[in-house]
Amino acid sequence: MGSANKTGTDRKARIEEMRRAEQARERRNRVLTIAASVVVVAGLVVGGVVLVRSQDDKGSDTAAASDSSGKGKFTTGKDGVKTWEGKLSRTHVTKAVKYASEPPVGGDHSPVWMNCNGDVYTEQLNNTNAVHSLEHGAVWVTYNADAKKADIDALAAKVKKTPYTLMSPMDDQKDPIMLSAWGHQRTVTGAGDPNVDAFFQKFVQGEQTPEPGAACTNGLSK
After folding, report:
1. Residue 189: which residues within 8 A CB-CB, separation 6 or more?
2. More confident call, 69 vs 119
3. Among 11-20, 56-65, 176-185, where is mean pLDDT lowest?
4. Whose C-alpha in 65, 104, 106, 196 is 20 to 30 A from the C-alpha of 90?
5. What is the sign of the dihedral through the CA atoms of 123, 127, 128 and 129?
6. How many domains does the chain have?
7. Basic and acidic residues compositional bias: what residue ranges (predicted)?
């Protein structure tokens, strides 16, 4: 019991530390945004910025057409967690992306992430936005029409209390309830399945995170 309490305390402390870091980052971003605006108004390097942005957009469109989640496959561990074996590309794109799994666990994605600070959505999300959230270290809880309402409600309550998580319906997934992180995924039997807590513990801002500590607020919301 003592060990379990210590684990829970450590996890809460880690999440609080991430929250403080995110708030500090947002303050720095606001300062940088103001400074950048002044530069733009002064007319400095406008031509260069426009040229670079144009080149980036062309590169993004090409990436969207030629590359999705990368080449690879899932392997299932003894704990039931499926791990993507292969490269997961991380290009920002503005077009639709065809992913290798539903829900996806990584790949090219929108420049704008879905808010994932314990956000619960009642409508299906655009995968490209949700994948960006995974890149920031979020766990994405999804469910289809076969999931029980009691499980949906219980999972929603858990997500709302957990930073770096989000939840939404996913009509096309094969199992009633699934959990996804960058490069990792598993099915659970319900809200009371102990694998829910185990997955959250391991993958919320876990070692798989490509951009640890990146924002889960100030993104897209529905």
Report:
1. 177
2. 119
3. 56-65
4. 196
5. positive
6. 1
7. 8-26
Pair of tokens at residue 19? 């929250």
* Beta carbons within 10 angstroms of residue 193's beta carbon: 17
Domain that holds residue 93: 1-222
Name residue 151's amino acid.
D
**CA angle, corner 136, sides to 16 and 67, nearest 5?**
175
Cα separation values, 209 from 132, 135, 205, 213, Å: 11, 6, 6, 9
- Give pTM, 2 decimals: 0.74
Tokens matching residue 18: 């991430």
Give dist(CA 141, CA 152) in Å, integer. Answer: 10
* pLDDT digits 0-9 by tens, 136-151: 999 999 999 999 999 9
Do the beta carbons of residue 185 and residue 199 sit within 8 Å? no
Contact (Cβ atoms closer than 8 angstroms) between residue 178 and residue 102: no
Q: Give the chain's largest Cα–Cα span.
A: 63
pLDDT of residue 10: 66
Position 60 pLDDT exceeds 70? no
**Alpha-carbon torsion, ordered 139, 90, 19, 207, to 10 deg:** 60
What is the spatial distance between Cα 112 and Cα 107, in angstroms, rounded to a whole number? 14
